């Protein structure tokens, strides 16, 4: 795996990068008799500066990182670590090409230190670094400026901030103005205001090179798919392969998550050819927009072939080693460092009858422990070696366990450490978070026959006693938009809601045992009227709204009726409904009117 992009680190990356560094350095430190995990982590964390740290990212995987500090007369390569699972693939050499490009641009030599008895010494010497001096534990090197031959630096992905909105809107205008004009869209102030409505820094990445903004993209993750909301490059940055590299990175993310990517492009746009050339297929079009989808092979094919075998007492040592490799980073991220103690706990509870090995060919890549309780299946453990992750095997095993749960008509329950990538894995695979404890999170997956489930949430009827709870959710969901539209009399809006509240047409949305939203849908003679639809802000951007709307659209298809609704003129939900197939039918100073028309009711083109 040699393909990756550079991504500037954030403060929240500190713990995981400290773990990666400790793992990468372990062999060299043990050779010197200096391996102290706690000290190794603390030394890195004490000096961690996100602005100087670049991660090497392939999809959602961090392969390594480096720290480059700009000194008055040289560049100091303070850290360069590749996770052992990804070493030997040419990644380090590509990082040095980036470092050399920066050094050439700044006209400065590069200096660094490497542990004695480390394989890194031969690596740096092989790339032109010259020994300068050494001390008791380290050898120091320099790459003179005269020895540096390098091309331009690669781009760096950087998290957007709220204050970037104006600058990004300017770049978007430069990238799109000609295509907007070609499609008859010349109200540029309106387009700019729509951008500010939709802009979410937390899902937006800037594409930077040597301090210059080249472009940006917004990448949303929902329960069943990813959505590229925006991907723009400044005209002068186009044609250099940057868009292709960004798209390859996003496709890798989708492949690892086993989800498709969806996006929209203007009907008259060169981007249509671009997306088709990168494996995106046209699914439909609405008005001036073509909609595309990329489906990774893993979404179309079965995961890598594996088999499940029963374990025996003799397997314990190998199982414990797999558990250690799979869990070390997560345990230490949660402050748990006594690995011998945790291995002893595992040994005490080890039961071969409930422990299942996951085999690919003749190699054991992982295992899981499943207890068959009276009212549920308890997935106590599921572990895979690092080199088995990202290959679809874990999802395949989870699907197998889900099949067993469906056959027995029982839910699956499991616990996960709070700081663990497994949380995202289970959420992606339909598990609902039902309880947060200080030491662990509790998840549950319920077969469809057990209850009415939409993804990891369900829809339930309400009664009059629910009014205050629903009114509070409505207030939290709407207060910002009321303010944006000059509406501040919240007591009046609550009384108006109470006067029209009818439990017969109101459904609440339950996720993780908690009511997170609700909708009000009236069944008219010729259409369905979606009067209200609210998701609590803390649960937005998880795909819940899109999935609920999908179920309502299916209801409309089954009844052969359109769905109609109104929104405020200044509201983020306008873009949400347009993305989900609704068409703007009219607009006034006070409201916008939308309609979803099932395919069967549409007039032929």
UniProtKB/TrEMBL annotation:
Enzyme class, spelled out: transferase
Gene transcribed to yield this protein: tmcA
Signal sequence, start to end: none
Domain of life: Bacteria
The protein's Enzyme Commission number: 2.3.1.193
Pfam families in the record: Acetyltransf_7
CDD domains: NAT_SF
Protein name: tRNA(Met) cytidine acetyltransferase TmcA
Domain N-acetyltransferase: 4-146, 155-305, 306-449, 457-604
Family matches, as Gene3D superfamilies: 3.40.630.30
Keywords: Acyltransferase, Transferase
Species whose genome carries this gene: Pseudovibrio axinellae
UniProt keyword Glycoprotein present: no
One Gene Ontology MF term: acyltransferase activity, transferring groups other than amino-acyl groups
């Amino acid at each position: 795996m040699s393909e990756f992009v550079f991504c500037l680190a954030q403060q929240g990356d500190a713990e995981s990068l400290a773990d990666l560094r400790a793992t990468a350095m372990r062999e060299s430190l043990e050779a010197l008799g200096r391996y102290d995990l706690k000290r190794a982590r603390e030394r890195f964390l004490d000096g961690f500066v996100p602005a100087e740290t670049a991660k090497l990212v392939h999809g959602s995987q961090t392969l390594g990182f480096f720290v480059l500090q700009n000194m008055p007369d040289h560049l100091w390569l303070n850290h360069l670590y590749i996770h052992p699972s990804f070493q030997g693939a040419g990644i380090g050499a590509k990082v040095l090409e980036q470092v050399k490009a920066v050094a050439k641009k700044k006209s400065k030599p590069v200096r660094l230190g490497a542990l004695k008895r480390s394989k890194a010494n031969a690596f740096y010497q092989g790339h032109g670094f010259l020994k300068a001096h050494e001390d008791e534990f380290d050898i120091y090197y320099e790459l003179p400026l005269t020895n540096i031959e390098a091309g331009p630096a690669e781009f760096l992905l950087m998290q957007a901030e709220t204050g970037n909105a104006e600058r990004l809107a300017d770049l978007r205008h430069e990238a799109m103005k000609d295509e907007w004009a070609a499609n008859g869209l010349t109200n540029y102030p309106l387009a700019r205001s729509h951008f500010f409505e939709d802009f979410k820094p937390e899902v937006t990445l800037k594409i930077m090179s040597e301090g210059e903004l080249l472009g940006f993209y917004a990448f949303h993750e929902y329960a069943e798919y990813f959505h590229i909301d925006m991907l723009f490059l400044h005209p002068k940055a186009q044609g250099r392969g940057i868009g292709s590299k960004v798209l390859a990175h996003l496709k890798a993310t989708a492949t690892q998550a086993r989800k498709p990517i969806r996006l929209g492009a203007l009907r008259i746009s060169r981007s249509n050819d671009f997306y088709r050339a990168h494996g995106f297929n046209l699914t439909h079009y609405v008005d001036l927009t073509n909609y595309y989808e990329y489906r990774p092979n893993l979404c179309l094919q079965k995961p890598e072939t594996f088999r499940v075998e029963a374990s025996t007492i003799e397997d314990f040592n190998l199982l414990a080693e797999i558990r250690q490799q799979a869990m070390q980073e997560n345990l230490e991220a949660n402050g748990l460092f006594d690995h011998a103690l945790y291995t002893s706990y595992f040994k005490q509870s080890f039961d071969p009858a409930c422990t299942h090995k996951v085999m690919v060919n003749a190699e054991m890549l992982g295992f899981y422990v499943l207890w068959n309780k009276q009212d549920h299946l308890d997935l106590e453990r599921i572990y895979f070696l690092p080199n088995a992750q990202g290959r679809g095997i874990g999802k395949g095993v989870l699907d197998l366990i889900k099949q067993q749960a469906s056959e027995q008509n029982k839910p699956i329950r499991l616990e996960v450490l709070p700081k663990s990538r497994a949380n995202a894995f289970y959420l992606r695979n339909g598990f609902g978070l039902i309880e947060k404890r200080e030491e662990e999170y509790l998840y549950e997956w319920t077969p469809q026959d057990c209850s009415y489930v939409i993804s990891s949430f369900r829809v339930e009827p309400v009664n009059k006693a629910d009014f205050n709870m629903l009114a509070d959710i409505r207030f939290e969901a709407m207060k910002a938009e009321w303010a944006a539209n000059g509406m501040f009399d919240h007591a009046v809006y609550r009384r108006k809601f109470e006067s029209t509240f009818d439990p017969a047409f109101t459904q609440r949305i339950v996720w993780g045992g908690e009511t997170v939203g609700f909708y009000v849908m009236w069944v008219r003679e010729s259409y369905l009227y979606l009067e209200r639809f609210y998701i609590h802000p803390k649960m937005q951007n998880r795909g819940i709204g899109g999935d609920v709307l999908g179920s309502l659209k299916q209801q409309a298809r089954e009844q052969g009726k359109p769905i109609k609704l109104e929104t405020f003129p200044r509201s983020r939900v306008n873009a949400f409904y347009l993305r989900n197939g609704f068409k703007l039918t009219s607009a006034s100073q006070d409201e916008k009117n939308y309609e979803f028309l099932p395919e069967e009711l549409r007039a032929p083109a």
